[in-house]
Amino acid sequence: MRTASMVLGIIGSVFGIIAAIFAMLVGGIGHAFHASSSGEITGLGWGALFLSVVGLVGSILVRNFAKVAGILMLIGGVGGIICVSYFFILPGILLIIPGVMSMFVRNRPQPSATHSA
């Protein structure tokens, strides 16, 4: 379950970085044609890029700190959807699902440190 969360989180984060760059590209093209509020799209693209990196950090941490990683992936997925909406649907889903999965992972039992002599 942790490996699946990690893989889905990494894939979602990579797609999120691509979607954020695409949103910044659209904002830049809009700014070149003097469209209104194109600067906002570029700024929200930067926010989505930051949240994708947060999701990537969460997916890397999922093996050792599952709950924290789940929270980071949920923040990255939901925040990215809020920032650039339609650009972030696929990455958002690919970050929210492993975020929820890693929230419900049980901790592995620790091996006992007692030695029999």
Automatic annotation (TrEMBL):
DUF4064 domain sequence ranges: 1-83
Record field: transmembrane: 6-29, 41-62, 68-97
InterPro entries (alphabetical): DUF4064 (IPR025273)
KW Transmembrane (keyword) present: yes
Keywords: Membrane, Transmembrane, Transmembrane helix
The keyword Transcription appears for this protein: no
Superkingdom of origin organism: Bacteria
Protein name according to UniProt: DUF4064 domain-containing protein
Native source species: Alicyclobacillus fastidiosus
